[in-house]
Design goal:
This protein has helices at about 20-30, 95-100, 120-140, 165-190; strands at about 5-10, 40-50, 65-70, 75-80, 85-90, 105-115, 145-150. The chain has a 5-stranded antiparallel beta sheet with strand order 5-4-3-2-6, with helices on both faces. A two-stranded antiparallel sheet has the order 1-7. The chain is an alpha+beta fold. The chain is about 35% helix and about 25% strand. The radius of gyration is 18 Å and the shape is globular.
């Protein structure tokens, strides 16, 4: 499977992300000959437990993430960050969960993914660092209120090898979402 890196837009302190900023970021990407076509849409879903007995809350993960990816439409991935677990399941698991009513979907987010035709994480790091520098230079020329971040989780914590799989992509999305949630919480705390 080709290697995928997920970049996160990190706004500067005191600034917010809105559609106007994201349009400017897209224009910035296009200015360095980036293209919008060929995107693969991944869907990330937050789940929370539907407990009938709150005394059992400690026995179940408080929440976890699920991810579907068009590269493998027959698969669904669960990420339990607190336990450092990535689980690959048949895509029908979503229907089973809905019928069992043990976990409920809180929110589903769609992401667009671009890729490089490399399968080794080690080989890709230098390329992505150089790409990140080029991209950041383009962003700084436009005076956009933020920067791109490449968050690289420790994949070995999840038992994942150097050869890239869709499970690696799922872990990256989970880490990007954790960063996004932390950013939103920091902005909210600053307002209060």
């Amino acid at each position: 499977m080709p290697l995928k890196w997920v970049f996160n837009w990190q706004p500067n302190a005191g600034s917010t992300v809105n559609s106007q900023i994201l349009n400017k970021v897209s224009q910035c990407v296009e200015s360095i000959n980036g293209i919008k076509e060929g995107r693969w849409k991944a869907t990330l879903t937050f789940y929370k437990p539907m407990l009938r007995d709150q005394a059992l809350a400690a026995e179940f993960p408080r929440d976890f993430l699920g991810m579907s990816h068009p590269v493998q439409p027959d698969k669904y991935y669960f990420i339990l960050r607190g336990h450092k677990i990535v689980l690959e399941a048949d895509s029908s698991i979503q229907l089973i969960m809905e019928k069992l009513q043990s976990y409920q979907s809180r929110v589903a987010l769609n992401f667009d993914v671009e890729y490089l035709p490399i399968s080794s994480l080690e080989k890709s790091r230098q390329i992505m660092e150089e790409f990140g520098d080029i991209w950041q230079d383009a962003v700084s020329k436009r005076s956009l209120p933020g920067h791109f971040m490449r968050i690289e989780p420790n994949f070995s914590d999840y038992g994942l090898e150097d050869h890239y799989t869709t499970q690696h992509t799922a872990v990256q999305y989970a880490h990007v979402m954790a960063q996004l949630i932390a950013s939103v919480q920091a902005v909210q705390a600053a307002r209060n």
